[in-house]
Design a protein that fits this description.
single chain; alpha/beta; seven-stranded parallel β-sheet; six-stranded parallel β-sheet; 13 strands; globular
């Protein structure tokens, strides 16, 4: 073999080796998510850790600790910024009897806390040190309730990406100018079917106005925090940094909602937090599940509600139901002990929910209707009993009920009889499991995994310095301009003026003709 041929082979091997191990010099990526809802942060954490595994240098700031150790992944935890959020929110939700009016009453508290936590986070010494690091960052990634932090990208000189933990809402659509035809897309809080009847489309219009009103309140709180952190004499306005977001990643999939249009800068990555291969379970949890002759039920009310704060009658109803079951129950429980705990119940303050649902011995998931939990149950083919508590959860579970793999029990109607009937129905009726397994195949069938898609587009935005060619011109237009209502109004006035002119000319001609006839007479 010639020296030239050997050199070519060596170069080819080096290229193949380089493509196999990923980038030799990774990008520097900063993530900040101060959302009080831990489920929002979990979704972003999953992407940030995967970016670190693929060779990038990742820094993540949030209120929640991270037990998993990943190379190249630096976690800065500021738990004090959300204070007693869990207790306050639980008390507010349960005291309002889970009504929609009660939910609306809790929104200002949530918005105010999300804005104040941003202010405190950015001003902290730990984050200020990060922002002043001489190496800088190639991209800033933030979450749904943290858009006031986008101003930091001005100092960093980098593009921005937003991760939305659910289907797009008005607050997110406005970042990239994404259209939402209200005659076709049901409001996510109303639980309407698709397509909608005339009556449902009327209701959807009122839901649209409500969502726009909430978006205005949302932006008001975030704008106040932004203006305090990033003065107008040195930084662009809050609205302009929102409109300059390079990419929005949606933790949503078309199989779980109505098909809808997306601009190029909005990408679906539904199930981003779900692992393709489950991690090993803690030994005690694994043994508890493996040894369950009749299977296991997972029970969790999510990351925001504290189960120990439930009224005694509701807790007794749940315990009475579990006490009569042959199945074992794993319960996400936030205190050290539970009064009158049945022998078949295991309590854990924090559970690897996705990994547990992946276990073949799990028969049922009793949950509150959060999109993250629904996606994980769908991916692993586990049917549900749903107890909606607040926010989009009633609408989420209504959609799942239409698909036939959940039995819903309203919190106000929760008794031992209603919960037991729902649990027995889902366990004994094989149709629920058949439906979710059929839909699971649809949810999994994609050209790329959710994580591969999210990583690709994150690196794409960095490679192309914010990818301005993806920017949709409609983001700079208001509602009237995007809908061409101003053009329609102009044309209507022009047609009206033209008709008036023709009418005037005709009248003048008629008058001239009449005068001529009179003179001749």
């Amino acid at each position: 073999m010639t020296t030239c041929g050997a050199s070519l082979i060596c170069v080819a091997l080096l290229v193949l080796l380089g493509s196999a191990v990923g980038p030799v010099i990774g990008y520097r990526i900063l993530g900040i998510n101060t959302s009080p809802s831990r489920s929002h942060v979990i979704v972003q954490d999953a992407l940030m850790k995967e970016l670190a595994r693929r060779g990038h240098h990742v820094t993540m700031v949030s209120p929640y600790k991270e037990s998993e150790q990943v190379p190249n992944y630096r976690k800065i935890t500021l738990p004090h910024v959300i204070g007693t959020w869990g207790k306050d929110f639980t008390a507010s939700t349960l005291s309002n009897s889970n009504t929609r009016f009660g939910m609306i009453k809790s929104i200002p508290m949530l918005l105010q806390l999300s804005a104040s936590s941003i202010n405190e986070t950015v001003r902290s010494a730990e984050v200020q040190d990060v922002l002043r690091e001489p190496e800088g960052y190639d991209v800033l990634i933030t979450g749904l309730m943290t858009d006031a932090v986008l101003g930091a990208a001005t100092d960093l000189g980098c593009p921005t990406i937003v991760i939305c933990p659910n289907a797009p809402m008005a607050m997110v659509n406005s970042m990239v100018g994404n259209p939402t035809p209200i005659s076709l897309i049901p409001n996510m809080l109303l639980g309407l079917p698709s397509p909608m009847s005339f009556r449902q489309r009327v209701v959807n219009v009122f839901g649209w106005f409500g969502e726009e009103a909430m978006a205005l309140a949302w932006k008001s709180y975030q704008r106040a925090a932004y203006d305090d952190l990033f003065p107008a004499d040195r930084y662009p306005t809050y609205d302009s940094v929102r409109r300059n977001v390079s990419l929005v990643l949606l933790n949503h999939h078309v199989s779980k909602g109505s098909p809808r249009p997306y601009v190029p800068a909005m990408i679906e990555v539904g199930g981003l937090q779900i692992k393709d291969k489950a991690s090993p379970l803690p030994d005690d949890v694994r043994q508890f599940i493996d040894g369950a002759e009749h299977g296991v039920i997972l029970f969790s009310l999510g990351t925001n509600l504290l189960s120990s704060s439930m009224p005694a009658e509701k807790l007794d109803a749940i315990l009475g139901t579990f006490r009569t079951l042959r199945q074992r129950v794993i319960w996400k429980w936030d205190s050290q002990d539970m009064p009158h705990k049945p022998d078949n119940v295991m309590l854990r303050e924090w559970l690897p929910q996705d990994d547990i649902l992946a276990h073949p011995n799990v028969r049922l998931f009793i949950m509150h209707g959060g999109l993250g939990g629904i996606a994980e149950a769908l991916f692993h083919g586990v049917p549900l009993v749903g107890i909606p508590m607040f926010g989009d959860q009633p609408g989420n579970l209504e959609k799942v009920a239409q698909e036939g793999w959940v039995r819903v029990v309203q919190y106000g109607e929760l008794t031992e009889q209603t919960l037991s009937a729902a649990v027995r129905e889902v366990l004994d009726n094989g149709q629920y499991r058949q439906n979710v397994r059929r839909l699971s195949q649809l949810y999994r069938d994609r050209p790329q995994t959710a994580m591969d898609t999210a990583v690709y587009w994150t690196e794409y935005v960095i490679r192309h310095r914010g990818a301005p060619h993806l920017r949709y011109p409609g983001v700079d237009m208001n509602f009237w301009q995007r809908s061409s209502l101003d053009v329609i109004a102009f044309l209507a006035v022009a047609v009206y003026a033209f008709c008036k002119l023709i009418s005037l000319v005709c009248r003048m001609c008629c008058r001239g003709s009449s005068k001529s006839k009179l003179k001749k007479h």
